[in-house]
Fold this sequence. Notes:
By secondary structure, the chain is α/β, with parallel strands linked by helices. The protein folds into 3 domains: 3-58, no CATH class; 79-371, Radical SAM ThiC family, central domain (TIM Barrel, Alpha-Beta Barrel), CATH 3.20.20; 386-445, no CATH class. Helix content is 48%, strand content 8%. It has helices spanning 3-10, 21-26, 32-40, 45-53, 94-106, 121-131, 140-148, 156-169, 185-188, 198-210, 215-218, 220-230, 251-269, 287-297, 318-331, 351-371, 379-389, 393-399, 403-412, 434-445; strands spanning 57-58, 73-74, 80-85, 111-114, 136-138, 173-176, 233-236, 274-278, 303-306, 336-338. The strands form 2 sheets. Strands 3-4-5-6-7-8-9-10 form an 8-stranded parallel β-barrel, surrounded by 6 helices. Strands 1-2 form a two-stranded antiparallel ribbon. Strand 9, helix 15 (318-331) and strand 10 (336-338) form a beta-alpha-beta unit. The longest helix has 21 residues, at 351-371.
Amino acid sequence: MNRHLSIQQHxxxxxxxxxxxxxxAKDGIITPEIEYAARKEGLDxxxxxxxxxxxxxxIPANLHHPEALPFLIxxxxxxxINANIGSSAILADPAFELRKxxxxxxxxxxxxxxxxxxxxxxxxxxxxxxASTVPxxxxxxxxxxxxxGDPEELSAELLLDVVEEQAEQGVxxxxxxxSILLRLIPLAQKRVTGIVSRGGSLIAQWMVRHNRxxxxxxxxxxxLDICRKYDVSLSLGDALRPGCLAxxxxxxxxGELEVHGELARRARERDVQVMIEGPGHIPLHEIEMNMKKxxxxxxDAPFYVLGPVVTxxxxxxxxxxxxxxxxxxxxxxxxxxxxxTPKEHLGLPDxxxxxxxxxxxxxxxxxxxxxxxxxxxQDRDDAMARARxxxxxxxQFSLALDGDRAREMHDExxxxxxxxxxxxxxxxxxxxxxxxxxRNLSQESGK
Length: 447
């Protein structure tokens, strides 16, 4: 699909009063974006249109981001994954962020969020948008805080200005912490780790210091007006997500989830696409319940979860703890997994951390897609099995989620043997290779 042509065809939709994919879907129209995204996954475009119209799927595709190809996020589509990148006040190098973007996309990220908090934030974001073939998300409050310095100086007007400027640049979806309300903050103060969301903690600080309601909640209609104008999808941020197992599934988390449901319905009524962000640190046995509760309270809006991280004692390996939780969450209905890198809780990730985080989440999402029998999900696994039995190393590397690493690991133990011809690896060698023996037996039985 040449999305540039599609955007040119649909730029005029802003003047029709119906610029969003959701509005078109409600009107029974299958746009080129819906057609492309559905067929890419082996889904009927009419089925995808109905799911979008009902709010159970979204297509994050800002009118001003023609470089990105559209795709579906929803429980009945393939599970997607997001990778977070972005500068900090300590390290703000646009080239570094572009390298992380390239790594994330290469290894299978479906979306990338720019969470920059330092340096030339608009400039970094512009470079990322123009280089990205996948949708880009942001958390607008980070730039707003960077502008004023003191969180207490925030205003609804500034927040909305930042949202509009980012939308104008082409940001496809935005995390807004609009559902944390004054009445919920005391519930979070009973926790072991309090409020662990950066955006959520900043909004909570502003509300407590000013004794006023969340400005993103009180000005939600203006926020929706901006999103509708550019077809920016909203990601309702989980400001009160649990930051440890002890805080999981508590009154603060579920109180915010109820507000998510209210705001999701209001967004859909205004033709704004919306998804819900979720936990967080959740023990294994509570994941299914969390997925079902979101489907019930939020009318099955796409659920976008961080992990979930299933244990608190694996710093340095949280890409694994989150992949375990992510596979279970996706199996029970999560539509998109936010990757967690080995640096989670420890520091700013580099390219290697991004690679490890993306591949771990990709494994989790794919395993769930296979288990759920989604169209075409197992095709790649079946092709890999055939290539393994045939000792077709090149095909194996091309099918692997991280073929570069697979090749490196294979070749380092067989320096004198060409991987193109060896019918064994260094684990068993030629004499003890079970597949080689099995293939020989098949050949002998066929004689």
